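Quick one:
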Amino acid sequence: MTLPEVNTMYSTDDRCRELLERLRWPEGVMCPRCKDTRVSRLKEYARYECVGCQYQFTATSGTIFHDSHLPLPIWFVAVLLLCEAKKGMSAMQLKRTLWGIDRGSYKTAWYLCHRIRAAMKEVERPMMDGVIEMDETYVGGRKRGIGPKAAKAAKEVVIGIRQRGGDLRFFHAEDAKSGTLARYIQENVSTDVEVLITDTFPAYKSAVGDATHKTVNHLEKEYVRYEDGACVTTNTIESAFSLLKRGIIGSWHKISAKHLPAYLDEMTFRFNRRKRHDLFIDTLRHMVTADPLTFEKLTA
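Output:
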């Protein structure tokens, strides 16, 4: 989906709402409260009323779009911009693109971005198998007046797991100790994994458990090794980390520890669907099935 196509196909609220109805109720309109399929359409505002519980609702009730005063065409353009921005898009850039320099509110754009990110959170995460690469990285600003070890400890830990030919997952972790790494492995990596590849960070030795474990020694300038016809490297997970950091440095510039998981969800959602032609539609599908995110909850 391209920007001209979105502007042409979904230029009105009615066209946008029609698509959202199809995505939310592919087998027919259903009451979101009691799940009754006996509903009647009201003339006013494309509203429905449930015959069973008399609840009135629309296609956006109880979704990420809930209680929004923004026109749906603006929502659709914002979704496309975030979907197609490989390194992400800042709220300020979104504001300038949608409303210009002197119009619109930064707070509105920021809230809009976070509601889209909330829908990008993966609910179902099947266990990963095959060849798995795992690594950790540290994000955050430079700390002046302290040593390298203290500066590293003051940053936020991000753990990355990537299945070759499969999905990528990022996690905001409290630390990179062996117990923490073991927990993420147990929750995401299948017990019959073919091989788990990491660098020589000592914590991985006990964290991987009984899984077949191979390492590359970056301290000795080793980045790729071919062993028994297999490629032993962590380059693919490190390339994903590189993309994340380009997003932080070049697009978002500064993100708080509180909202870091939301940015990680956005990056992995987009990365795992980068080759799909229905990325835009799939994002909208997640938005009409995700729970609403209030501003009070976001800023609590």
